[in-house]
Amino acid sequence: MGRKTVIDFSNIRIVLVNTSHPGNIGAAARAMKNMSLSRLVLVQPEEFPSGVAVGRAASAVDILENAVVVDSLQEAIADCALVIGASARSRSIPWPMLSPRETGAKIVEESARHPVALVFGREDSGLLNEELQLCHYHVQIPANEDYSSLNLAAAVMVLSYEVFQAATEAQQGQDNSLEAGWDQELSSAEQMEHFYDHLERVLVRVDFHDPDNPRQLMQRLRRLYGRIRIDVMEMNILRGILTHIEKNLRSDKSNEE
Ligand code: SAH
Description:
The chain has ten helices and seven strands. It is an alpha/beta fold. A seven-stranded parallel beta sheet has the order 3-2-1-6-4-7-5. It is elongated.
């Protein structure tokens, strides 16, 4: 738990096309840095470098300083084998679409092998059709039907967040499941079988369970205990309880006799 995420994001670039407001460039840089991304490419920004951008970038000024300014989207993505364009509108010609979540997963998966780009459009008019057609996929951030166009830097944040989450998940693999960071090992199948045998013996012994009329009791208990993933410490406690019930039943019986 709390393991530091060290992921190589150097193959992932954020491309902003023809941005009008330098404040958005700064805010996008900040969003990127929050999510561990660092490569920013600006296609014909209207005003850059800019003090306004620096102000909005806060502690992400390094991303602005290292930003690459180019003349065309083609140039920005030349060496990328995966290009995903963010667009608020669906286009006349249907294009392969990804959800933000799928976008994060795909970018993380492919950036292990080659450079990938996430492309964002102009504040007023988004990406042109010919720019969208340079992309392998489009991603639309689901939003209010009556107002689905996010601020540019907010859109950068949502998708950068998805990239970061996908990378964290990929790194942790199964770690996201219960086993990760748990203080005890989980019980093995064999330990679970011993437990069910023991439980069944005790339930018969206390007349709760009639093996001749089982009514799916053991299946239901298996489902119950299976759902909660019992660890070895919890298993010791449960087995201890059953053993004590048996012991007390025996001594009750010997007292009666
Ligand atoms: N009015 C423009 C939207 C521009 S917002 C239009 O209708 O296309 C600036 C950029 O932010 C967009 O080009 C896109 O890259 C991104 N963006 C904004 N809202 C988005 C959304 N809901 N889904 C995906 N990208 C979005």
